[in-house]
From TrEMBL:
Superkingdom of this protein's organism: Eukaryota
InterPro entries named among the record's database cross-references: Dimeric_a/b-barrel (IPR011008), DyP_N (IPR049509), Dyp_perox_C (IPR048328), Dyp_peroxidase (IPR006314)
Keyword Cell wall biogenesis/degradation included in the entry's annotation: no
Cofactors demanded by this protein: heme b
Protein known as: Peroxidase TAP
Occurrences of domain Dyp-type peroxidase C-terminal (ranges): 199-395
SUPFAM superfamilies: Dimeric alpha+beta barrel
Pfam family name, one: DyP_N
Domain DyP dimeric alpha+beta barrel: from-to ranges: 10-189
GO molecular function: heme binding; metal ion binding; peroxidase activity
C-alpha cells in the first residue's frame, strides 16, 4: 500500500521545527494505571502541538519580532525564542517499556530503543559506579536509573505560560501516572540567548528536511526518512502501521563544568586571546557561531549571525590547519572529510535547551562549579544506532575519527567520553602546530543520564494509543 504524502498536521511539532521556547520542562513519568492512562490520553491529544501549528507559531513570532525591529533571524536551524509572544507547546513520547506497559503491540525494530539507554550507557562511554553489592550501574541521577515510561515536553515563552500548561498536562494524567521528575531548562539571558553554557552559539547548523523547508547555502538537504519512520527505506518494512511519522528521541542530561573548562583553556593557551582561539578550535566555531573554516584567526559576529554564510564551508580532508579534525562540529558533521551520503544517514534534528543558573562570581573566582548547569540534549532520528548513538560512540568517542588522517585526531573535546576517566587527547588544538597533541586533563561534560523515547504521530496517539 502506498504511503500517503506527509501532512504536517500529523507530526508532533518538536520533531520537524522545534517547539518555540524560552523555557521547557521535561515531565518524566511512570504509568501506574495503563487503562486509565490510555483513557486520559484521549483528553491530552487535543493539547498536542503539531508541526503545522509549530510552523505557524514560528511564522507569527518572526513577524512580531520583525515588526518590532528585533532580530528575527536567530541563526536559522536554531530554536526560535518567543520572548514577546505568548505561546506554549506540548509533545509526548514513550520509552519501549512505556509502550509495553500500555499494551501497544508491535516491534519498532530498533534494538537500542528496545533495550533503553541505561543498558547502553557503558557503550556510550558514560561513567559507571560500583554498588556495595558489587553490581555496576551508570553514574546517573536517580531519576534516570528508574523505569521511565514516558516524557511530556512542555514549552513556553515564560515560566508562567509553561507552568500553566504543565499543570494542565499533569492534571489530565494525574490518576494514571507517577511523576518521576520534572526537569526544566531556560534559554540563557540577554546576549547569551541561543548560546550553550560554554558560551558558543548553538543550533547554527541543522539539516533541512526535504520537501518540508527551504535551505540555506551549505545546509544539507536530508530525506524525511532519516528522521521519520515509514518515510524512507523502511516504508514497506514490517513495522506496525502506527509507526508511520513517528520519530525516536534521545534525551540526555549533560552537565557542563564551565569555570573549569575556561580555566583549562586559559592555563593551556596563556592569554585570553589565545584561549579564545583554542576554545574555537575545540568547537570548530567561535562563540558568535562564525565557522573557523571561514575566519581562522578571529571571531566575526556578523558572519556568525548570517545564516546565508555561516554554514557555507567544507573541511579540507587530511588538513587540520584551519580546523582540528577533533573539533566538535567536525566530528559531528565531517563535511568534506567524508562523502555527503556517508554523513546524511547519521544526521539528527537537535532540540536541546540549557539548564541551570548562570556561572556565579564565586564560581568564576574559585574556578569551580558548585551549581549544576548544562544542556538538556534532545535529538530526533529514525534510527538510534545510525543517529545519536553512532555520533557519540563511533565519531565523538573514537580518537581515530575522521579516519585516514596522517595525524591522529583524538577525542571530541566537548563530548568525547572514555568511561572510567581514561585520558583524552586531541591534536589540532594549537593553531601554530596542528600536529602537537594536547592532553585534555578533564572531561567537562559528564552525562547524568537519559533515555530513548518514541514520539508517535498524532493519528497514532489519537486512534491507537488513546482509548475512549
Ligand atoms: C553539553 C554538550 C554539548 C555542547 C556544549 C554542544 C555544543 C555545540 C555547539 C556550540 C555546536 C555548534 C553550533 C551548531 O552548529 O549548532 C554544536 C553542533 C553540533 N552538535 Fe553539539 N553540543 C553538545 C552535545 C552534543 C551531542 C551529545 C551531540 C550528538 C551526539 C551533538 C551533536 C551536534 C551536531 C550534530 C552539531 C552540528 C554539526 C554541524 O552540522 O556542523 N552535540 N554543538
Amino acid at each position: 500500500m502506498a504511503v500517503a504524502p506527509l501532512s504536517l498536521a500529523n507530526i508532533q511539532g518538536d520533531i520537524l521545527f522545534g517547539l518555540p521556547k524560552q523555557s521547557q520542562s521535561f515531565f518524566l513519568f511512570k504509568i501506574d494505571q495503563p487503562d486509565a492512562f490510555r483513557a486520559n490520553l484521549a483528553n491530552l491529544v487535543p493539547l498536542i502541538t503539531s508541526a503545522q501549528q509549530t510552523k505557524s507559531n514560528i511564522t507569527e513570532i518572526k513577524k512580531v519580532k520583525l515588526s518590532q525591529k528585533l532580530r528575527a533571524n536567530e541563526g536559522d536551524g536554531e530554536a526560535v525564542h518567543p520572548d514577546i509572544v505568548t505561546v506554549s507547546g506540548v509533545n509526548i513520547a514513550f520509552s519501549a517499556k512505556g509502550l509495553e506497559k500500555m499494551g501497544i503491540v508491535g516491534d519498532l525494530g530498533d534494538f537500542l530503543f528496545k533495550s533503553g539507554m541505561k543498558e547502553g550507557a557503558l557503550d556510550l562511554g558514560d561513567n559507571m559506579r560500583q554498588l556495595p553489592d558489587g553490581a555496576i550501574q551508570p553514574d546517573w541521577d536517580d531519576a534516570f536509573l528508574q523505569e521511565i515510561h514516558g516524557v511530556g515536553l512542555i514549552t513556553g515563552d515564560s515560566h508562567e505560560t509553561l507552568n500553566q500548561k504543565l499543570t494542565s498536562v499533569k492534571d489530565i494524567l494525574s490518576n494514571s501516572v507517577q511523576e518521576i521528575a520534572t526537569l526544566s531548562g531556560d534559554v540563557r539571558p540577554d546576549d547569551q540567548k541561543g548560546h550553550e553554557h560554554f558560551g558558543y552559539k548553538d543550533g547554527v547548523s541543522e539539516p533541512a528536511v526535504k520537501d518540508v523547508e527551504s535551505f540555506k547555502p551549505g545546509q544539507t538537504v536530508v530525506d524525511q526518512g532519516v528522521f521519520l519512520l515509514g518515510r524512507g527505506d523502511d516504508a514497506f518494512q514490517d513495522r506496525p502501521s502506527w509507526a508511520l511519522d513517528g520519530s525516536f528521541m534521545a534525551l540526555r542530561k549533560l552537565p557542563q563544568l564551565v569555570p573549569e573548562f575556561d580555566k583549562f583553556l586559559l592555563d593551556t593557551a596563556g592569554t585570553q586571546e589565545s584561549a579564545d582561539l583554542m576554545g574555537a578550535r575545540f568547537v570548530g566555531r567561535w562563540k558568535s557561531g562564525a565557522p573557523l573554516m571561514k575566519t581562522p584567526t578571529k571571531d566575526d559576529p556578523e558572519l556568525g549571525a548570517d545564516a546565508n554564510r555561516n554554514n557555507d564551508f567544507k573541511f579540507k580532508a587530511n588538513d587540520q590547519s584551519g580546523c582540528p579534525f577533533a573539533a566538535h562540529i567536525r566530528k559531528m558533521n565531517p563535511r568534506g572529510d567524508l562523502g555527503e551520503s556517508s554523513i546524511t544517514s547519521h544526521m539528527v534534528l537537535r532540540r536541546g535547551i540549557p539548564f541551570g543558573p548562570e556561572v556565579s562570581d564565586e564560581e568564576r573566582k574559585s574556578n569551580k562549579t558548585t551549581q549544576e548547569r548544562g544542556l538538556m540534549f534532545v535529538c530526533y532520528q529514525s534510527s538510534i544506532s545510525s543517529g545519536f548513538s553512532f555520533l557519540q560512540q563511533t565519531w565523538a568517542n573514537n580518537p581515530s575519527f575522521p579516519f585516514g588522517t596522517t595525524t591522529e585526531p583524538g577525542f571530541d573535546p566537548l563530548i568525547g567520553q572514555t568511561s572510567g576517566g581514561g585520558v583524552r587527547t586531541m591534536t589540532g588544538a594549537f593553531a601554530s602546530n596542528s600536529s602537537q597533541p594536547l592532553n585534555l586533563l578533564a572531561q567537562w561534560v559528564n552525562s547524568r543520564g537519559g533515555e530513548y523515547f518514541f514520539s508517535p504521530s498524532i493519528p497514532a496517539l489519537r486512534d491507537v494509543f488513546a482509548k475512549a
